[in-house]
Amino acid sequence: MTLGPHAAFIIAAYAAALVVVLGLISWVLADHAAQRRLLADLEARGVTRRSDKAEAV
Amino acid sequence: MALIDLANPTRFLALTARILPWLAIATAIVFAVGLYLVWFAPDDYQQGATVKIMFIHVPNAWLAMAVWAVMSIASIGTLVWRHPLADVTAKAAAPLGAAFTFLALLTGSLWGRPMWGTYWVWDARLTSVLVLFLMYLGVMALWHTVEDPSRAGRAAAILTLVGAINLPIIKFSVDWWNTLHQPASVFRVGGPTIAPSILTPLLVMALAFLLLFVTLHFAAMRNEILRRRVRAMWLMQAHAAS
C-alpha cells in the first residue's frame, strides 16, 4: 500500500485520532483512580454516606 | 434484571464493573479488524489514498451528532423526571462528544487541504459543526461553573435541548445550501452511493468508534457517580464538624 503524494495529511489525521483516543482513555482511567483514592481516604477517616448507614442497620 | 433497575446508581456501578472489561476487549477487536480493512481498502478513483481519512473523519462526524442526541434525551430525563443518572449521562458524554467533534473538524481539514485546496471554508456544514463543538465546550463550562450538580444539570439540560436544533441543520446543511462538502452518501434515500469495498471498512470503523464511545461513556458515568459520592461525603463531614 502506498499513501501517494498526500501521505503527510493521511498520517497526520490518523496520528491526531490516536492522540485524542489515548488522551480520552488516560483521562477516564486517571479520573477513576483519583475518585477511588478520595473515597478510600474519606472512608479511612470514618466518613460514610447516609445510604451506607441505612444498609448497615 | 429489569432495565429500570439500571437507573439505580449502585446497580449501575455493579453492572459497569462486570461489562466494562468485555466492552474494552470488543472495542479493541473491532478496531483491529477495521484498521486491517482500512489498510487493504482500495484507493478512490478520484481522491487516491486520501480517501483513507474518511474512515476516521466520518465515524467521528456521526458520533459528534449522536452524542449530542444522547445528551438531549438524557436532558429530557433530567428536566421531566429529575433522575440523577440522567444528568450523570449527559455530563459524562459532553467531553467525549467534544473530542469526537474536534477530531471530525481536524480530520476534515486535513482531508480538505489536498482535495479542496483549503483547510477551511465558512460554509454551512463546516460552520454548523464548529458551532456544535463550541456548544459542547459551553455545556462543559456550565457544568464547572455551577457547584451544585442538580442545579448545574438542569441548566445544562436546557442549553443541550436548545442546542439540539443544530443537529438537523448539520444533517441537511449540504442539501439546503451550496457547500464544498459532499452530500450524504451513506444514510440517504436510495441507499449508499459508496462502493462496498470502501463502505465495509467505513462501517466497521464506525462500529469501532461507537463501541469506544459506549465503553468510555460507561467509564465516565461510573467516575461521575463516584465524584458525587465523594462530594456527598465531604458535605456530611463538613456538616458534622459544624
* N- to C-terminal distance of chain B: 42 Å
Detail the poorly predicted runs of chain A: none
In sequence order, what are the helices and strands of chain B, one letter per element?
Answer: HHHHHHH
Query: How large, in whole angstroms, is the Cα Rg of chain A?
Result: 23 Å
Q: Note the beta-strand portion of chain A.
A: under 5%
Beta fraction of the residues of chain B?
A: under 5%
Assembly state of the chains shown:
heterodimer
The backbone outline of chain A, from C-alpha atoms, is: rod-shaped
Structural class of chain A: mainly alpha
For the sheet with most strands of chain A, the description reads:
none
| Mean pLDDT over the residues of chain B | 91
* Class based on secondary structure composition and strand pairing of chain B: mainly alpha
Mean pLDDT of chain A: 86
Describe this structure in words.
The complex is a heterodimer of chains A (57) and B (242). Chain A is mostly helical and 57 residues long. Chain A has one domain. Chain A has two helices and no strands. Chain B has 242 residues and is mainly α. Chain B has one domain. In chain B, α2 runs parallel beside α7 (196-241) and α3 (84-116) packs antiparallel against α7 (196-241). The longest helix of chain B has 46 residues, at 196-241. The radius of gyration of chain B is 20 Å and the shape is globular. The chains are: A mainly alpha (57), B mainly alpha (242). At the A-B interface, α1 of A face α1, α2, α3 and α7 of B.
